[in-house]
Design brief:
The complex is a heterodimer of chains A (about 350) and B (about 325). The radius of gyration of chain A is 20 Å and the shape is globular. Chain A has a 7-stranded mixed beta sheet with strand order 3-2-4-5-7-6-12, with helices on both faces. In chain A, strands 9-11-10-13-14 form a 5-stranded mixed beta sheet, with helices on both faces. Chain A has a two-stranded antiparallel ribbon with strand order 1-8. In chain A, about 35% of the residues lie in helices and about 20% in strands. Chain A folds into 2 domains: about 190 residues, Thiamin diphosphate (ThDP)-binding fold, Pyr/PP domains (Rossmann fold); about 130 residues, Rossmann fold (3-Layer(aba) Sandwich), CATH 3.40.50. Chain A is an alpha/beta fold. In chain A, strand 2, helix 2 and strand 3 form a beta-alpha-beta unit. Chain A contains 12 helices and 14 strands. With about 325 residues, chain B is α/β, with parallel strands linked by helices. Chain B has a single domain, classed as Thiamin diphosphate (ThDP)-binding fold, Pyr/PP domains (Rossmann fold). Classes of the chains: A alpha/beta (about 350), B alpha/beta (about 325). The interface between A and B is large, with 52 and 52 residues. Chain A: GO terms for molecular function: oxidoreductase activity. Chain A: Keywords: Oxidoreductase, Thiamine pyrophosphate. Chain A: It holds the Pfam family Transketolase_C.
Chain lengths: ~350, ~325
C-alpha cells in the first residue's frame, strides 16, 4: 500500500531526476552516448533530459564508443563533468582502452595534476534471452582494475543518491545499473527496486555497503539484482526458522569490507550471490575479504551462487538454469548445513 | 600534392628566428642528455627521443596562443619543452623521481601539466586522438576560441579510433588540429609497407576535413601551416589536418638499433634536411645573428640541460607511501 507522502520511482527515473537536478546547478555536466537524446536512453535513464537541456548538453553520439569515451576523458580533464553511457556493458570490448588505460589511469599518471570527473553509466544483466553479447554483468572485470570507482544500485533510492554522488566525484565512476531493475515495461522489472525517492537532491556515500535486512544465522552478500534474490531467499529461510542477514554492497569499488566482515563475524556463515561469472570475480573477492581477515569467525565453509563459467546462452531454459535465484540461495544454505 | 615549403626570403624577425633556434636546440640537447642518462642506467623502460622532429612542435607552438591545448603520444618530451614545461620536472620524471611532473608514477610516456595545457603523454598508439577531440569539445562548450593540437604519428593513423574521432570532430565542428607527425616509420615499418596511400592528410576528405602536407624539417613552413589551421579552427569551421613530413634520427625507442633503414638514409637527412641547421643558416646568412650570438644560446641551453640532469639525479626517489595516492582524485583507496 502506498502511503500518501510516498513518491515511488523506478531506477531509470531516479537516475534521470538526479542528472537533471545536477545539470540545473552545474553547467559543466553534460550527457553523451548512443540514443540518450530523443530516444531517452534504451533503459530510460536519460528520458526527458533533452527536452529540458537541449541537444548541446544531451548529445547523441555516433556509434563510436572509443571516440566518445576517449573524448569524455579529455573533456573531464579540461574541467567538464561528462556523464557518458555505454549502452550495454558487453560493448566494453570496443572501447576498453579508453576506459582502463585512459579514464582509470590519468589521475595517477599525472601525479594528481589532472582530475577525471566523469560518470560512465552502463547497463548490466540478463535473464530476458538477449544472448551472450547483451546480458553480462562484468562486475569483476571493471572492479578488478584500479582507478575507477564502481557502483551498482539495487533500488531507486540508492540509484538517485549514487548518481548525484558520482557526478560530484572528481574521479571516474562506473555506474552499473541492472536492466531487470530499471522499471522498463517491455523488459519486466523487479518490483522491489521501485521505492520511495525524495524529491530534493541527496548523495549516497560511494564505498559504503548497507545491511538491508538484519539476521543472525547467515550473511547473504550481493549487489544489484542479487540483493532482491537474497531478500526473497531470506523470507523463505525465515519460514524455516533461519534468520538471514542481507548485505547490499551498493559500491563494488571501494569495497566496504568492514561491513561485510562485521556481518559475517555476527552470523558466522557467508553466502555470496553474484550474477557475474563465478571464477576470478566478485564472489571470490568477498570470501577472501572475510577469510584473510579472520577465518575463525566462520562456522561453515562459505558458499557462492554465481553464474557458471560459460558464455551466456540464448535459450531461455539454459539461461535461467545458469542465473542465480532465491531457490539456489536456499539450496546453498541447505548444503552448508549438510556439510 | 607537393609539400609546402617556406619562401626563400621568409618574412620573419630576428627575434622569432632566434626563438625557434633556441627552442629546437633545447629539445635536441635535452634528448641527447636523456639518451646519455638512459645509457647510464638512470632511465628505465622505453624512452622515445624526438631528435630530428623538433621543427614540428616548435613551429606549431609558434602558432598557438594561451589557452590552446595539446595532447600527444609517448614521444612527448619535445612537446612538453616546447609548450614551456620545466625541463627539470620532465627529466626527473624520466629518472622516476619525486620531483618529476608525475612524482615518478608516469614516466617518459605519461606527464601532464594543466598549467601549460598539456594533457599527456599517452602510451597506447592513437589513444590520445579522442582525448584531443574531447579537449576541443570542452573549449567549444565553454564558448572560447581555444584550439586543441592533437598529435599522432603515421603509425597511429592506421588506428580505427582516429576515424571515429574524425567523424565526430567534423560532425560537431570541434576546434581540433589533427597533427600527423609523419616520421616515415611506424616503429620499424616503413610507411610504404604499412600504409595504403602516400598522403595521409587526404583521409580527412571522407569526413569533409581539409588537410595539407607540410615540410616538417622547415620550422617556418610548419608555423605558416599552423597559422592556417589555427585560423580555420578559431573561425568555428571545425577540424583541420596537418600532415607534417618529418624524420626521426634515432630508433623508435632507446632499445631500437634501427636496422630497418640504412645509415646512409639517416645521414642524408641529417646533412641535407636538418631543421636546426636550416634555421642556423637563415640566422647567419640573413645576418639575424652572429656566431657569437648562437654560441651564447648554445651555452645557455647547455646550462639548462645540465641543470635538469643534475636535478633528475638528485631529486629523491618517491616514498612508497606515494603508491597509494592519486589513484583517485580524493583520498579513497581500495585496500585489502
Amino acid at each position: 500500500m502506498t502511503k500518501s507522502n510516498e513518491r515511488k520511482l523506478t531506477i531509470a527515473r531516479a537516475m534521470a531526476e538526479a542528472t537533471a537536478q545536477e545539470m540545473r546547478i552545474d553547467p559543466s555536466v553534460f550527457v553523451m552516448g548512443e540514443d540518450i537524446g530523443p530516444l531517452g536512453g534504451v533503459y530510460g535513464n536519460t528520458r526527458g533530459l533533452i527536452e529540458e537541456f537541449g541537444a548541446e548538453r544531451i548529445r547523441d553520439t555516433p556509434i563510436s564508443e572509443t571516440a566518445f569515451i576517449g573524448a569524455a576523458v579529455g573533456a573531464a580533464q579540461d574541467g567538464m563533468r561528462p556523464v557518458v553511457e555505454l549502452m550495454f556493458v558487453d560493448f566494453f570490448g570496443v572501447c576498453f582502452d579508453a576506459i582502463y588505460n585512459l579514464m582509470a589511469k590519468n589521475i595517477y599518471f599525472s601525479g594528481g595534476n589532472v582530475k577525471v570527473p566523469m560518470v560512465l553509466m552502463t547497463s548490466t544483466g540478463g535473464g530476458y534471452s538477449d544472448g551472450g553479447q547483451h546480458s553480462q554483468c562484468l562486475y569483476g572485470t571493471f572492479a578488478h582494475l584500479p582507478g575507477m570507482k564502481v557502483v551498482a544500485p539495487s533500488n531507486a533510492y540508492d540509484a538517485k543518491g549514487l548518481m548525484t554522488a558520482a557526478m560530484r566525484d572528481d574521479s571516474p565512476v562506473v555506474y552499473m545499473y541492472h536492466k531487470g531493475l530499471q522499471g522498463m515495461g517491455w523488459l519486466g522489472t523487479e518490483a522491489g527496486a521501485t521505492v520511495h525517492v525524495p524529491e530534493e537532491p541527496y548523495t549516497l556515500e560511494i564505498g559504503k555497503a548497507k545491511v538491508v535486512r538484519e539476521g543472525k544465522d547467515v550473511s547473504i552478500v550481493s549487489c544489484g539484482m542479487g540483493v532482491h534474490n537474497a531478500l526473497k531467499a531470506a523470507k523463505t529461510l525465515e519460514a524455516q526458522g533461519v534468520s538471514a542477514e542481507v548485505v547490499d554492497l551498493v559500491s563494488l569499488v571501494p569495497l566496504d569490507r568492514d561491513t561485510i566482515r562485521a556481518s559475517v563475524a555476527k552470523t558466522g556463515r557467508l553466502i555470496v550471490v553474484d550474477e557475474d561469472y563465478m571464477s576470478y570475480g566478485l564472489s571470490g573477492e568477498i570470501i577472501a575479504s572475510v577469510t584473510e581477515h579472520d577465518i575463525s569467525v566462520l562456522k561453515a565453509a562459505p558458499k557462492r551462487v554465481a553464474f557458471p563459467d560459460v558464455p551466456i546462452p540464448f535459450a531461455r531454459v539454459m539461461e535461467q538454469f545458469c542465473l542465480p535465484n532465491p531457490d539456489k540461495i536456499v539450496a546453498a544454505w541447505d548444503e552448508m548445513q549438510a556439510a | 600534392m607537393a609539400v609546402k615549403k617556406s619562401s626563400k626570403k621568409p618574412n620573419v624577425s630576428a627575434q622569432e628566428l632566434q626563438a625557434y633556434y633556441h627552442d629546437m636546440l633545447l629539445i635536441r640537447r635535452f634528448e641527447e642528455k636523456a639518451g646519455q642518462l638512459y645509457g647510464m642506467g638512470l632511465i628505465g623502460g622505453f624512452c622515445h627521443l624526438y631528435i630530428g622532429q623538433e621543427a614540428v612542435v616548435v613551429g606549431l607552438e609558434a602558432a598557438a596562443k594561451e589557452g590552446d591545448k595539446r595532447v600527444t603520444s609517448y614521444r612527448d618530451h619535445g612537446h612538453m619543452l616546447a609548450c614551456g614545461m620545466d625541463p627539470n620536472g620532465v627529466m626527473a620524471e624520466l629518472t622516476g623521481r619525486i620531483g618529476g611532473y608525475s612524482k615518478g608514477k608516469g614516466g617518459s610516456m605519461h606527464m601532464f601539466s594543466k598549467e601549460k595545457h598539456f594533457y599527456g603523454g599517452h602510451g597506447i598508439v592513437g589513444a590520445q586522438v579522442p582525448i584531443g577531440a574531447g579537449l576541443a569539445f570542452a573549449d567549444k562548450y565553454k564558448g572560447n576560441d581555444n584550439v586543441s593540437f592533437t598529435y599522432f604519428g603515421d603509425g597511429a593513423a592506421n588506428q580505427g579510433q582516429v576515424y571515429e574521432t574524425f567523424n565526430m570532430a567534423a560532425l560537431w565542428k570541434l576546434p581540433v588540429i589533427f597533427v600527423i607527425e609523419n616520421n616515415q616509420y611506424a616503429m620499424g615499418t616503413a610507411q610504404a609497407r604499412s600504409t595504403s596511400s602516400p598522403d595521409i592528410f587526404t583521409r580527412g576528405a571522407a569526413f569533409g576535413i581539409p588537410g595539407e602536407a607540410v615540410d616538417g624539417m622547415d620550422v617556418l613552413a610548419v608555423k605558416a601551416a599552423g597559422d592556417t589551421a589555427v585560423a580555420h579552427c578559431r573561425a568555428g569551421k571545425g577540424p583541420y589536418i596537418l600532415e607534417v613530413k618529418t624524420y626521426r634520427y634515432r630508433g623508435h625507442s632507446m632499445s631500437d638499433p634501427a636496422k630497418y633503414r640504412t645509415r646512409e638514409e639517416v645521414q642524408k637527412m641529417r646533412e641535407e634536411k636538418d631543421a636546426i641547421e636550416h634555421v642556423r643558416d637563415l640566422l647567419l646568412t640573413g645576418k639575424h645573428a652572429t656566431e657569437d650570438d648562437l654560441k651564447a644560446i648554445d651555452k645557455s641551453i647547455k646550462e639548462i640541460v645540465n641543470a635538469s640532469a643534475e636535478f633528475a639525479k638528485e631529486s629523491p626517489e618517491p616514498a612508497l607511501e606515494e603508491l597509494w595516492t592519486d589513484i583517485y582524485a580524493d583520498d579513497a583507496s581500495q585496500t585489502a
